[in-house]
What does this fold into?
Amino acid sequence: MNNTASTPTAEPPLLEASAISKRFAGLRAVGGEDGLSFAVSRGSFVGLIGPNGAGKSTTFNLISGVLASDSGAVTFDGHDITNAASDTIAELGIGRTFQTPRAFESLSVLDNVVSGATSPGERLRAAFGRAWRTHESVTVDAAKRTLDRVGLTGRADDLVSDLSGGELRMLEVARQLVRNPVMLLLDEPTSGVDPVLQKRLAALLAELHREGMTLVVVEHNLHFLLALAEHILVLTHGELLTEGPPTEIRTDAAVISAYLGDDYAA
Amino acid sequence: MNWLQIFVTVVTLGSIFGVVTLSLNLQYARGGMINFGIVAYFAVGAYAYAIFTQPAPQGLDQYKFGFGWPWPVALVAAATAALLFAAITGWPTLRLRGEYLALTTFAFAEVFHSFLLNERRIGNGTVGLANVKRPISDWGPIEEKYVFAGAAALLMIATLLVFRRLLRSPYGRALDAIRDDEVAALAAGKSVQRMRRQVFLISAIPIGAAGGLYAMFTTLAQPSLFTAEVTFIIWIALVLGGERSVYGAVAGTFGLIFFEEVVRTWPFETVRSAQIAASVEHIVTGLLFIAVLRYQPFDRIAERMKATR
Amino acid sequence: MLFLQFLTTGVVTGCFLILATIGFSLTRRVEGFLNIAHAELLGVSAFATWWLNAEMGWHVVLASTAAIVFTSVTGLFVARLIYDPIRERGPAVLLITSTGVAFVIGGVIDALIGTGIRTLDIGLATSYEPFGIRITNYQLMVVALAVIVSVSLALFLNRTRTGLAIRAMSGNPELAASRGIDVRTTSRATWLLSSGLAGLAGVMLAVLATLTTDLPFAQILQVLAVAILAGLGSLYAVILSGLIVGIAMDVSVYWIPAGYRPLVAFSVVILVLLFRPEGLAGTRAA
It folds into this structure.
């Protein structure tokens, strides 16, 4: 089991999970005997792969605060976020999208992105003043630019129900992007997305990576992922099977056999 | 049928209860919290007002507290008492969701009701506190009851304006986001815990003031006035007016109170037929409630309006 | 000595609560929501029994049987007419709707019966005094019925096809459907059974208490307490919870004024929901 960081750098990893684990009704979803441990370096593009039920989404949930880890610790950017709440973790700079895309149904597409940002205009006191209007226009501008970036220009006034599955995923990405996260966790972003949109997403992710954002992407679509990521973590049965650069992983016998029976044999 | 009197009563009671419906609108339709015990906050306001204005106990009085304060101060005290009650009951219950929150608020309200019935020292038991101070004064040529109706309407309008302001701001939008998808809202950095608590506390303040006005109006603070039935009346008013809008909350309340008043004051031949009419009124409103919940006419209309834009 | 007396009445109350709550728990597990109108079904049965017995002169056994059947059918009717069409709206909306249904049924009872106290035309209770503790024949009947119903229900749920289907559905309706269980028929059977049980409890209410039109609704609070304490678990959890709540309520009179008896039930609700929402049974709802 290889637990070292992806590229040998002097600086400490941005995200570090040490011996985390989670049990559901007696069944262990994440973490082997010693728990799950891995690290993500600042500015890297990491892929998280594994067969269904390997615990990938659960790991995301443990990092982003949706679930509390039964053991171990998670540190991000020097902060201990092991038992922190989701909103605190989001404010620290971790963004995430979900396996099934989530959206605010009663808000328009634009408002969905606007509400993604944490604006001082949202505080209770601000509601009774005039200052929030200035905050609003700043946020609305940022939201519109983000919509352009994900390819949803012109859909600003549409309802969430008007969007296709793929567009919904892009909306979720936009909602996280407007927050300028330090690290973005994406859970199966290409699932249900048509090839044209996938190309666009790949270009966007490459661009974000170039700009210095740290990305961790869970994917079953290995063609998509192995072309973009620098480092791959392979999860099976909640434990880290192996990790390494894409070229090694795609020929690794253990990884291929873990996927045997799946349609996605590398 | 004295339509003028009915009109005055509807404006007065409609405004007082309308305030409670507005608060429920904020808590449920925007905040996503199902409060099945809202009558308790109303009762706290009423009893607080009564206790603060009544003279100190003497002779055969069973209650222990009476401060004899002037009524404006007591109204503020009523609002504050409701706020405190919300803070106390909110702390454990706001961690819960959906039906569990509904049941806990329901249980708290029943505990309070039971407490009022049994604790003679605070509320004088089933008899309640009578002769609650009502500042009787005609305002020039306008009779006192019109002044009172006006005051109640003023409270209702003020509450409506404040809530509407709140809901149209980014804070309101954040509330909508939380109600739509709490997990996604958390992932977007919204402090769900804090906002729900804020909504719960803010909405309690006008309910307390309305309770105080109610005690003034009836000159009575009695447990039988504050049963679970009041909570359900408010819910029915909310649903019938279309859960979403603040105007709907007020309209639904006025409509319901109007219906009730007409049935109540209709000159029936016998006591029995009056009772049956009251029961039929319950049945009709209950059926309307169920129908509106199922067919959601207001949402349909709103969508159709959006589509034709 | 007094304590033992309270304990005994507590067991009786507990048995009544078991009868009143089993049906409620059943629909909660199978249909997935808390049906507040369940308590009003007790009223339907109680007053139907009274009317047939005291007004129409039927023998009380015949009257109760007819009332139970009627209540059973009424429960099913309400479920098919009102609850089934909005199933997919979620448990919160169903809960809110059920309060409306309770309101309507309560209104119908009020309109038909009116105010005042009603009592059944049955003999006065005969008391026995085993070991110096007073207990009446009617109270013994409640206990006996609770035992009989519990045993029969356990057999039904474990031995018959419908019963097993009901048990399968309580865990996971989708999974049950994919295993070939006729969800619709099982759902209807559940409503009939649950409402019938409410009917039985209603008859007991009429036997033990003096009936007023607001009595049924007062029961919902105690039924909720037992159901919440039991959680989503088995029949045994309901039995245990019923006894706990019943005994707690009556024994509390030993220390605090009798007027606070209902308070015990509500406090149970609050404490359980705050500290252990999954109740005694311990299975968390999805």
